[in-house]
Amino acid sequence: MNFEPFLSHLEVNRACSAETIRAYRSDLKMFETFLQENSIRRLSQVKCSTIKDFIDYMRQKPNPRFEKVGLSDSSISRRLAAVSGYFEFVRATSDTKLRNPLSSMSMKWHHNKDPKPVDDLTLDLLITGIDNIRDRTLMTLFLATGLRVSEMQQLNRDSIRIEVHVEETGKEVACGSGEVLGKGNKRRTFFVDEETLYLYCEYLETRIDENPALFLSERKQRMSVRAIQYTLDAWCKRLGAPHINVHRLRHSFATKLANTHINSFALKDLMGHNSLSTTQQYFKLTDTTLARAYFSAMEYLKPAR
Question: Given this structure, which CATH class describes domain 120-288?
Answer without folding.
Answer: mainly alpha
